[in-house]
Structures
1.
Amino acid sequence: MITPSQPRVALVAITKHGLSQALRLAAQLREACLTVSEKFAAELPAISNPVEVLPGALSANMGRLFTRYDQLVLFISLGAVVRLIAPHLKSKDEDPGVVVVDDAARYVIPVLSGHVGGANAFAEHVAALLGAEPVLTTASDVGKTIPVDILGRELGWQVEAPKLNITRVSAHVVNNEPIAFVQEAGAKNWWTRPTPLPANIHLFERFEAVDLSRFKAVLWVTRRDIAPELWTQLAERLVVYRPPLGQD
């Protein structure tokens, strides 16, 4: 999973054209490790990036790459990548971000861990460096709405809710159902998209001001202790965010 510090990045190429694009990107991501198949090792130019030569087939090395890096950028076809990573998937809380770039570097596609693992944001960064088009498919990004699972992460907010709540509330958000957003603490600059806040998101300064019968879900930024009976009352409709102290 991507960390707040510099992520560990591997640029993986196993074809001639893929290697050409990986070298372009490596020149702009000096911390990234260029990871290549053995047949290209002798032909590599001198570069400042760390280099790793894969012993044998990529499939035999994928498990190790999964545990070693935060972001994997693979210059391989999307279908091949799906088959390569499938045996190693655990959960979105553990899996690294996986990004695919085509051999012509026209498209950059986040495949795995788009939100929690940071692949969406990293794909946009890679696309900007290569002059390519990022292809994001997660509903909150396509719909330009709130990403419930990572909201405020760059501000240090911690999400507090059962995973089922996050799933259910995310569905309500992307389906444009009425959502109460209650902010009692934390920085106000949490909405970072260039587009206006979607019309289905209604802002409140106090939880007591919310008529719960009018809203499908509640996103609540607070430092209050929340009673177990309130979690029960709201069932799968509540997600809470905890901002760091002093961020008001």
2.
Amino acid sequence: MPQIDHQVHVALGERAYDILVGPRLIDAAGTILAEKFPGRRFGIVTDAMVADRQLPRLTSSLDAAGLDYAVITVPAGESTKSHAMLEKVVEGLLAARLERGDLVIALGGGVIGDLAGFAAAITRRGMDFVQMPTSLLAQVDSSVGGKTGINSPHGKNLVGAFHQPRLVLADLSALDTLDRRQFAAGYAEVVKYGLIDDADFFEWLEANLDDIFAGGPARGEAVARCCAHKARVVIEDEKETGVRALLNLGHTFGHALEKDTGYSGRLLHGEGVSIGMVLAHRLSTELGLAPGQDAGRVAAHLKRAGLPTRLSDIPGTLGSTATLMAAMAQDKKVQRGALTFILTRGIGQAFIENRVDEAQIARFMDGMRNA
């Protein structure tokens, strides 16, 4: 039997599902899937890098369980979240003669989860899918909650659908293959949960950062606590009409920076979120909403994790403030043309503010370039 260290239930009525957290769950996937989805065929969507590291574990497990599957491999990287790669995945699922009652498996990080989930949502007007996140970022954030989609030249995640998975298998062993930069990028999303509304969790992270990075017991606990936090928010606000927007702390800034750097290796998603969260805290301080020492504490912790915290930490030359502001104006949270930011009154006290003055943000960004 597979070892399951933590189990989180996402109670969404007919769309409810479980998140299983533990070691070597990819190796046990055949047993788990055969029991939960008898008689189904599977379409595995993965990227070239994950295929090299993790795909043999999954296919061996499915073979041992006597399950039939097809594999669709796409390039690694944020640029894969594109119309062209979406077409490749959809056509691959159709070419494999997978039916509406079969399942798509998203084996990879957040890019693959978003891409494969969106393909599942639209192929044959909706197929079920299973998330098998192999990055820390995907395990604690993007694999949970049903947000799927691709990027547009106009901005990040602007084309997509809400489509909940049927199961999430968070294999802690997969995290051992990540380099420190990739792991740290995912850790930014872990920190986010503490900064939103759980100051005790942030303090726990300050005390347990080394154990989390070393792969100790705190790693599995951190993943499970983040999943439980996100599950609570998704249950309350599945379609992001209210409180779920808090999960975008740091993302308005971060997405603009990702777009400006061309969704390239210059800036990973979690690195953009890290800088964005620091900017959100510093903007809140400038607006007289939060104590300055909290912004410093957040920056210090993220820096200790090896994450960038300033605009000047991004390699190369950034576009103009006007360019960054234009990218923010395409953010999904914009309402009737008004920018919406997640601001804070201190660590663990984030809130939604949709009355932010664009000129003030532009002046703030100008100041942050030399900070």
3.
Amino acid sequence: MNKIILTSLPLLAAAGVFHPVINFADEVKGPMSFKPIKGSAYNELTNDPAVLDESTWLIPEGFKQSVISDESNLNIYIDNDWPDMNTVNETQKQAGRYLYRTHEVRSGNDQRNDGRLGGAVSVIDLKTGKAKELAARDYWEALDGIVWTPWHTILVAEETNSGGYPDPDYPHASSGLVYEIELDKGDPTKAKKVTARPLLGSIAHEGIETDDEGNVYVIDEDRAPGGSIYKFVPNTYGDLSSGKLFALRVKNGAQIGEAEWAELNLDPATFDAQAAAEQIGATSYCRPEDLERIGKVLYAALTCEPRTGGKDGPGAVLSISLNEAPMVNYFVEAGVNIAAENSASGVTGLKSPDNLANGPDGKLWIVEDNVPSDIWVAEPDNDGDSHADGVHLFASMKDKDAEGTGIYFGKNPHKLFVNVQHSGTGNDKTMVISEIRKNDEKDESHSEDRD
């Protein structure tokens, strides 16, 4: 096993973390080649907008950062707009041009500037820089997860267990639902139709992902007793109005190891997937967050795994092989291929992994729900031991009240999109971090839509 932990031996010793083989990467190769930064932005945390509007992130040499859209060009809510995960129009004629965002507002914090209530989805035209509201509903609450489907629609999901604003068509669904947005074929900045998809369960949704067969994967972001990971198999490809919901169940009551997808008996009125998962003994994890599929492996960010003696852990990233006999493992785990963070001692490490992204060369990108919010890059498991072969620190946020969300690579492999939510400046935003390249002086916009 040849692992890389990007911190120093004295700091590892101070944190009680040891490993038999520790290598230090001078440079991470690939389309986003970079020399890892030395540590988290502990000494640069601030609420100063003059600093944060110019350089929110501590990033490697050879990279630049800029704001694509903030509340100065689209301000839907009185409080922070909280932009969350994002996707682009990646499979149509204008691939790479549009960026879609959910706005994670909850009851009590969702007062719009126009006097209405409820969540929204927005879209940014990366060619013109214009941002606009795509869709909104007064009963949408805590919209979070978002994914582009292979059949060219957008799925968005509510992360709530409160049921403060029930869907009028499904009043007994007390937790969040998934909604499918069909875009106008002539104008992808307009929503043609929005349809609830309750068969994907009523839970506190966040992460959502698809596979090539048209299956949809979702999670229940629950801390106690924990949330499960689900798979919806439609009867017909691209039609989420009928099908079966399954939950991941690891054998022998374990958290990792051999597993299966166990079919659920979903209540046709409440669509309570958590209750159905508990009935069949599905495996539960401490706050599953995002999902990301790379090839035949599904990754899940677990904010507070692995638990020890009932106490929350620092967080981990789970890997699930998508075959007939799924294998479940901790792909990124503190003390194995990354240090556990100890901010009091200034030890940079993993803490509360949240959002995931598929990098342009198959690496897994991870952003933390933490202060500072760090962005890590995990190498594929090439030695077959189930763990990432290295985990490298790419960036760290200087905003002391904010977190990074919605990391995403579009058509351009040299640009990473990331949102900043809960900013101490009151100005949530969407940013791009990109390599400084020779032809940058000719690139006067953020558009990836180059012919």
4.
Amino acid sequence: MTVLPKGVSAFPITPADADGTVDAGALHGLVARLAAAGVDSIGLLGSTGTYPFLSRAERLRALETGLAAAEGVPVLVGIGALRTDETVRLAQDAKAAGATAGLLAAVSYTPLTDDEVFAHFATVAREAGLPLCIYDNPATTHFRFTPALVARLAQLPEVVAIKSTAPEPAAIGAHLAELRAAVPSGCVVGYSGDWHCAEALIAGADAWFSVLAGLFPMQAMEIAQAVSAGDLARARALDLRLKPLWDQFRRHSSLRVMYAAATGMGLVSSLPPRPLLPLAPAVQAEVAATLAALGLA
């Protein structure tokens, strides 16, 4: 069943202009850095990649640009949309372009039921034939995938992975065990929410779907490699060193912090898509100072 590799999946921003036209040159540069660093996979058009703000045409432009820059690194691409028919078309685009899998969230304005989400996934799976990663992101979608729903979805042969928000460290072991029990062997179980992901890897998660790695891949990979080597003290020390950045992620959102970091480093000139606003100058200065202190700027 395994389609997506385990390990660090790096999620970059998607630079675009005020009209929503993707800056293909800047995106190519961001993705090429990740491929050169040796990340295990690349997550295009995730929440940090601001997929809901882009048209179908621009999402395809971003995907084609990212695939060209990835140079064979597996690419997971966000395909979430409000309507099922639109999601099907996005999934078909992703399959035709050569994406490894689609990242599918329960995007909605009206709260969804479990049956509605199951029917949504089943339709996308049937009509697109693209391997799917369940994207459980209740802070954004206000929908939570229960273990029972995950078990139903995992019966679809196209469902090959789940990306879940990592709970507090004390709860990760039990949460991971519930997910493992709900999915078949070979289904990749991974976490996002960078500030808890070191502990998730230590608990036995397969993958870290990382915002940090979208701009600073080596730092995320060092933590994952330390866990893989059984050096848990080093993994925790590396994670603790990044606490000032985790704190900024939690205060201001990792998306806004990554935009500030990428623009401050001269890698992009884009602002977050409106109505999102860039961080205030004083906060941008705090981010720059944190990166400098960590040796990342």
